[in-house]
Amino acid sequence: MASLIICCFLVVLFSACHEVSSTSDQLCIEKEANKTYNCENLGLSEIPETLPNTTEFLEFSFNFLPTIQNTTFSRLIDLTFLDLTRCQINWIHDDTFQSHHQLSTLILTGNPLIFMAETAFNGPKSLKHLFLIQTGISSLEFIPPHNLENLESLHLGSNHISSIKLPNDFPAGNLKVLDFQNNAIHYFSREDVNSLKQATNLSLNFNGNDIKGIEPGAFSSQFFQSLNFGGTRDLSVIFSGLRNSTIQSLWLGTFEDIDNQYLSSATFQGLCDTSVESINLQKHHFSDFSSTTFRCFAQLQNLDLTATHLQELPSGIEGMNSLKKLVLNVNKFDQLCQINAANFPSLTHLYVKGNMKKLHLGTGCLEKLENLQKLDLSHSGIEASDCCNLQLKNLPRLQSLNLSYNELIGFQREAFQACPQLEILDLSFTHLHVSAPQSPFQNLHHLKILNLSHSFLDTSNQLLLAGLPDLRHLNLQGNRFQDGSIPKNNLLQTVGSLEILVLSSSDLLSIDQQAFHSLDKMSHVDLSHNNLTSNSIDALSHLKGIYLNLAANAIGIISPHLLSILSQQSTINLSHNPLDCTCSNIHFLTWYKENLQKLEDLEETVCANPPSLQGVQLSDVRLSCGITPVGILFLTVFFLLVSILLIFAIKFFLRWKYQHI
Amino acid sequence: MNGLAAALLVWTLISPSGGGHGGRGDMWPTHVACRNEGLEVFYQSCDPLQDFGFSVDQCSRKLQPHLSIRFGIILREDIRELFLDVLLLSKGASVLNFSYPICEDDLPKFSFCGRRKGEQVYYAGPVDNSSFDVPEGEYQVLLKLYNENHSTVACANVTVIAS
């Protein structure tokens, strides 16, 4: 019997324990006190009482609310953002949001809605964004139109909608984005498109609807900010259907999983009568690429031909004189000259990123592009032994050049004479070869940002960075220095205007005290992920008010004379260091607690030593080192007692010894 | 009497994990992605929040290019950008490790790119793999799909047995 009682007691005890743990499981995450909460994936069937009444942003997706009504959220009257994604909502009853005057975004994605009451959206003074993606809607009549006058975006993707015609009483006056992705829309009539007329500057998304027909003139004399017909198989239908309209941006790309349809000159016929500023044709195939294919692209400013299986562009293309931006990423060019750049004399931006073959830069292939400002040749397997004056011949206005993620590029002196206006140069993750003591960047008077991360630089070349009077931002991450140390005389001495310096992940063991002495404008120094000890902090003694990242180094003890250097900086990150939390580091530990507002990433700044404090946050460590006044008193009393005892003992000993004489 | 008490105790100890919602903390079942003479592929979801469905249409040790797959999942994150990490292990040693973009802002490769958190996605179509002969042996593959914020979209422990 007793054992049964004990067992029952245990049962009660265990079930109580589990109850406690399951309620603590259901706590929402506080992202911003009293304002932003995340209660995702908790299986809740009501709003937890722990949420404060002042909650404004509530992420409540993947919970369980089959019915929502005016009592469901009534306590949280300050809500501005409410995400109810996949909460298994079937019913939205009358006046559910009656008291939520501030509500501006409501997300109902992935709920199997059966019915929304006429007054479901009444209450909010300005409901701006409504998401009804994959809610089973087959007709726009399903959406109660009351109180939607302020709607700016309406997302209706992945439903069963076949017509875009808005109901007569639907207020579309402020609508800017209308998203019909992945529906069953195959045809537009004039009446359909006319129902959108109240909206100006509209962006319409029909991606994933295979459009088969457009009534002639349906879109005529209308203006659209953007139209997306992604994945439509027959583009000629779109081009002829859009006659006489004005479109800022037209997205007509296709995808890997959609059958090929070949584009020809005839496909684009309708474009001659349409005003379009930018077109995307990604992943299409061209059947007969000729100089007349782009005949109707005369007004076009931006053309995106990403992954269109191009091996070359024909010379003598007509009517591309006004093109400003051309994207030729992920194609199959052998030579840069095969893009026949002379076709596009007005070009300011050119992208040939991720070329699928090894791209040869050739000589002067872009020399007709006198207006070019931005050139991206990254990820294209480029190899060039003597770059870049011949390759980039005559690019007087080039401001931004990206050669990152290429194979091997060799530089001689003044390698960028051909583009003296360069402001940004990205060479990261490209193996660079510069024979010492050359200065490849000499005379780039306007260069402000230089990224040389992971470029296998010879950092012992002290003239490498000579001739860059305006350089503000230098990234040297992942480059090695001889013996893992930056000596007094180093390559940074020539770049006195530097404000941001990144030297992370460079296997550094030490930095000379004088290494940065010529750099007095620095405001941001990143030395993280090295093996530096606190001695290297001396190199920063002349700098004030900087952001200093020393995370993931080998800093254990920081001696008192270095604390004044840290004190004069504005933000410091010391996380992931083997910091010492014994009395030998007491000055630093005291300083740390007094300067918490300066320190970043406090949670990851933990003790490594002694073993008893391993993993404890530095801010939580309480050490008492040295002797306190009470201790001194006790010690004095103790010594006094001991000496009195000793005197008595000696006295007794002597008396005992001489008694026998 | 004692037996009853013990049973009661055991039940209380076990019940919270068994009766909890969604079976969280449990392992998801192992599914067969394809099985044929010579090649067997099993997978198990390693996303603690949910399982997913996956199958490969043709299954042979001589993998054909542009394999057709079927894939069904509920998105827990937006996939405006989506990346795949693959880690291939043979006998516990890492053989191959690569990362591949599936959806990018400037190149959405597949029609499902850009779909939103909460959407149920079913994809039946090709993947752009190259042809490949699977050498005999047993392989472990760790697949991870994640978005631009490094939030997990799907995670799978795959076992491939080629005999």
Gist of the model:
The complex is a heterodimer of chains A (661) and B (163). With 661 residues, chain A is an alpha/beta fold.
Question: In words, what does this structure look like?
Answer:
The complex is a heterodimer of chains A (661) and B (163). Helix content of chain A is 13%, strand content 18%. In chain A, the strands form seven sheets. Chain A has a 25-stranded mixed sheet, with no helix packed on it. A three-stranded parallel sheet of chain A has the order 4-6-8, with no helix packed on it. Chain A has a three-stranded parallel sheet with strand order 24-26-28, with no helix packed on it. The model of chain A is unreliable at 1-25 (pLDDT under 50). Chain B is mostly beta strands and 163 residues long. Chain B has one domain: Immunoglobulin-like (Sandwich), CATH 2.60.40. Chain B is 11% helix and 49% strand. Chain B has one helix at residues 2-19, and strands at residues 31-36, 39-45, 53-56, 62-63, 68-74, 82-90, 93-104, 107-108, 120-126, 132-133, 137-147, 152-162. In chain B, the strands form three sheets. In chain B, strands 1-2-12-11-6-7-8 form a seven-stranded antiparallel sheet, with no helix packed on it. Chain B has a three-stranded antiparallel sheet with strand order 3-5-9, with no helix packed on it. The longest helix of chain B has 18 residues, at 2-19. The relative contact order of chain B is 0.21. The chains are: A alpha/beta (661), B mainly beta (163). The A-B interface holds A 1, 3-4, 7-8, 10-11, 14-15, 18, 21-22, 41, 43, 61-62, 85-86, 107, 109-110, 131, 133-134, 155, 157-158, 181-182, 207-208, 230-231, 253, 255-258, 282-283, 304, 306-307, 327, 329-330 and B 1-2, 4-6, 8-9, 12-13, 16, 20-22, 49, 74, 76, 106-111, 113-120, 123, 125-128.
